[in-house]
């Protein structure tokens, strides 16, 4: 249904198919025109790499993204996850330290490597490599077993470290300062005031 926030009120609440009679998907231009938009044929279909934050009508994709039915539509991934009773949370791109699966700190892995930050995947791969696989079926079975073998207390450490990073970012720290504050508060789930005070003291002396 064309949403009620459509600029052309005479089209609000009307049904609109997303495919043509042939079954092919409609293009952006046709979809917008059917909603009453007077689209300039020279307008880009989509900005590259992304639309500027303040732009409202820079491209056809931007115009359509402002419509409630598109803006509120969940992705197939999110629908699948929530449909099975789980919470779906999307994290910022290129910030693996906020994902417990990616950057973690595990006592067991530290015994095997000198790295301070390791991954849940790394923990599982280390276990997997130590077991001899004779057949491909064995490899598939052992993959699941190793993924399930990570102890709960280690997984809890993964989450605690990610939460400490989130706490540091919320307090305005970035980069090395956030990592330093996180390391200072290993026993807590958030970067404490003491770490913040130390950073401010160092800042003032410089």
Blueprint of the fold:
Layout: H1 28-33, H2 60-65, H3 68-71, H4 76-83, H5 107-112, H6 120-129, H7 136-148, H8 152-170, H9 175-184, H10 193-205
Helix pairs in contact: 6-7, 8-9
Write a brief caption for the model.
By secondary structure, the protein is an all-alpha fold. The protein has two domains: 1-73, no CATH class; 96-205, no CATH class. It contains ten helices and no strands.
Task: Outline the structure in words.
With 206 residues, the chain is mainly α. Helices cover 46% and strands 0% of the residues. The protein folds into two domains: 1-73, no CATH class; 96-205, no CATH class. It contains ten helices and no strands. It is extended, with a radius of gyration of 25 Å.
